[in-house]
Amino acid sequence: MESIGVGLIGTGFMGKCHALAWNAVRPIFGDVPEIRLVHLGEANAELAKRKARELGFEKASDDWRAVIADPEVDVVSLTTPNQLHPQMAIAALEAGKHLWCEKPMAPAFEEAEAMAAAARNSGKIAVLGYNYIQSPAIRHIRSLLAEETIGRINHLRIEMDEDFMADPDAPFFWKHAATSGYGALDDFAVHPLSLIHVLFGQVAKVMCDMSKPYADRRVDGRNRREVETYDIASALMHLENGVSGTLQVNRSAWGRKGRIALQIFGAKGSILFDQERFNEFQLYLSSGRPAEQGYRTILAGPAHAPYGNFVPAPGHGLGFNDLKTIECHELLARIASKPANLIGFDEGLEIERTVHSMARSFAEQRWIDVR
Ligand SMILES: NC(=O)c1ccc[n+]([C@@H]2O[C@H](COP(=O)([O-])OP(=O)(O)OC[C@H]3O[C@@H](n4cnc5c(N)ncnc54)[C@H](O)[C@@H]3O)[C@@H](O)[C@H]2O)c1
Question: How far is ligand 1, taken at its centre, from the CA of residue 188, in Å?
Fold first, then answer.
């Protein structure tokens, strides 16, 4: 394929990330086709036109179906709110387009199943926006685990916290409505679960608790609306490989800005990683003289692929949008039938299955087998 035509639906937080990634992937990596930014869709025509100008797309539309129907579009970036994913994703796949869809797949498990079936039937590439698995540090941690550098794994602990919902006076928006899903569980927990998926494999059983810090939020100067989603969730887990773990997520955690804290404990050492400082990780090895034991901080650099594609010097650091550019490069590799580090729709369905099992565990107040 000498060139590839891109359609983008939605231009909010993630839409801009996808557009930046599509603009950057060729200059950063080189080994990809020419990228043509063909058609952008937004909820209204004026916004669509402005965003097309800013982000470099040739055509703009207030009808997402026009983006999907465009014969010049080969791959669709889908970055709309969760509840719109099923209809748009299935339509894109049925139209014969490759698909890069933001996480989570859908609010309801049956919808996610329908999306995975549509992907299978289409024969097209369909992947999810699990950007944190692309971090060079996480990729290196994965190889350390494969080499058993810290021995047999005993336990893992993972937390994801942000404070964008911590202010009780912040207004109601789509993430507070039940139509978007359960709340922190499918908004946040899916990210730690994507890391668990690539580092350790499937979750076998779960026990989960959820809570709402604020019962209602303002919709305008006078009226308030009941919050229908849970901003906090905690789960005990057993993985299929026998490892036990805990997962805690909180969208109302003052002071936490983008924390995904992973602690992995093994028989010969431990590894710590935090997304807020994702250009480094800590390694503790139990070997050597006790008087000199301690965590070593390892700074990301060209030794941790694909860091060197962005910056030739170690310790200078990548940014969040770079993870999306790496994800975009992996997507293009998969489209070209090359090996790629991605979570496709069938693997994504396993993450959704875990999330829904956690929600069921909370509803029924008991351990749930994921399969
Ligand atoms: N991978 C990540 O790290 C990450 C981070 C944040 C959000 N997300 C996911 O990305 C998705 C979008 O979240 P966001 O934070 O970018 O939301 P957002 O509200 O910032 O953006 C959504 C965009 O979709 C547009 N839109 C709504 N209806 C539309 C329609 N019918 N046609 C075309 N455009 C429409 C909105 O106008 C808006 O510009 C969600 O699924 C979310 O879970 C992923």
Answer: 14
Domain range summary for the chain, segments of one domain joined by +: 3-131, 133-369
Ligand 1 midpoint to CA 296 (Å):
38
Distance CA 10, CA 321 (A): 17
Backbone angles phi, psi at 110, to 5 degrees: -60, -35
* Protein residues whose CB sits closer than 6 Å to any atom of ligand 1: 9-15, 41-43, 64, 79-82, 84, 102-103, 129, 131, 187
Give 28-39 pLDDT, tens digit per residue: 999 999 999 999
Instruction: Please name the fold of domain 3-131.
Output: Rossmann fold (3.40.50)
The pLDDT of residue 19 is above 90 = yes
Alpha carbon distances (Å) from 272 to 177, 198, 351: 34, 16, 23
Please give the CATH superfamily to which domain 133-369 belongs. Dihydrodipicolinate Reductase; domain 2 (3.30.360.10)
**At which residue do the structure tokens 């969760």 appear?**
82
Helical residues (DSSP H) of 95-171, grouped into ranges: 109-122, 136-146
Measured in Å, residue 97 CA sits from the centre of ligand 1 at 20
Instruction: For residue 321, give every residue at least 6 positions away whose Cβ sits within 8 Å of its Cβ, in sequence order, or none.
Output: 17, 20, 21, 24
Query: Considering the entire predicted model, what is its pTM?
Result: 0.96
